[in-house]
Amino acid sequence: MISHNIIELENGKIHAVQSGNPNNPAILFLHGWPENWRSYEKIINLANKDYFTVAIDLPGIGDSLYPNAPFLKNEIAKVVNQIVDKLNLHNVTIVGHDIGGQVVFSYLQEYPDELKAAVIMDVVIPGLNPWDEVLKNPYIWHFAFHSIPNLPETLVSGNAKDYFEYFFNAIAADPQKISPEIKKDYIMAYSKADSLSTGFNWYRGFTEDANYNKNIIALHSKISTPLLYIRGQRSGGDMDKYVSGFMSSGVEHIQTQIIPDCGHFIAEEQPELLWKCLAEFVNNPAKS
User: Would residue 68 count as lying in a domain?
Assistant: First the structure.
């Protein structure tokens, strides 16, 4: 059974969806743009028999009411750490997709010894190979557009349905796997002006994220937490380049997985295959 809860933190409130036995090892799910916690709904229903699952709306999105919501990924990671402490999660694996995956990387940097394992899905990490190459890709035009002050809000406000739909159609292998009901929920999650700006601010922070990542990597040598990096088959990209980026950042143990017949929205497009992959990794994360 899924329960909806509001976690009171010092600077705001986080909407957390919980399921399973709190005494079980925990899996905490972080969504990307333009989504909310529901991107993991199918995964939660597969995982909650053996794990305590928590999926949140990131600060400032949906029901996570967070004035002056942080947008730099290391600052969001600090909020996530507060959630881990507040819920007394143990044997924690954090799974992040898209922007949520960038937050997972920051969590590994900020709290290198606190996680059982970490999973990052279908995203490039600012400052890590192949970051510079991705920025030059004309198909990633929205990185630059979302970074422009004010203009994205002006053009997308009132047109979020059409704008979001473009991305679901363009980068999902099968857009029909993302139901109209869930798409409507995503639109509602960004319907407030502050929420819409929060989503675009994640992109506006990329340059600072990249500089921060490079600086913090220089401060330590190794990250021993096992990491699984996943991409959808239809997302493309050279997996070896992503692996080299993580290894250069100090990650010692990394596994990779490509999910077949899948685009960018892995948890919605191939939930059963993804859960099989996650379960195998969480049960044996030390393998590398």
Answer: yes
Which pLDDT score is estimated for 220?
A: 75
Rounded distance, CA 143 to CA 118, Å?
25
Q: What are the pLDDT digits (tens) for 23-40?
A: 999 999 999 999 999 999
Per residue in 121-131, pLDDT (tens digit) is: 999 999 999 99
84 within some domain:
yes
Query: Which domain does 6 fall in, by range?
Result: 2-283
Number of domains in the chain: 1
pTM for the model: 0.97
Is the separation of the CB atoms in 28 and 84 below 8 Å? yes
Q: Given the DSSP bridges, would you call strands 117-121 and 227-232 parallel, antiparallel or unpaired?
A: parallel
Identify whether 181 is part of a domain.
yes
pLDDT tens for residues 137-161? 999 999 999 999 999 999 999 999 9
Q: What is the pLDDT of residues 76-128, one digit of tens each?
A: 999 999 999 999 999 999 999 999 999 999 999 999 889 999 999 999 999 99
Q: What is the CATH number of the domain that holds 161?
A: 3.40.50.1820
Residue 288 falls within a domain, yes or no?
Answer: no
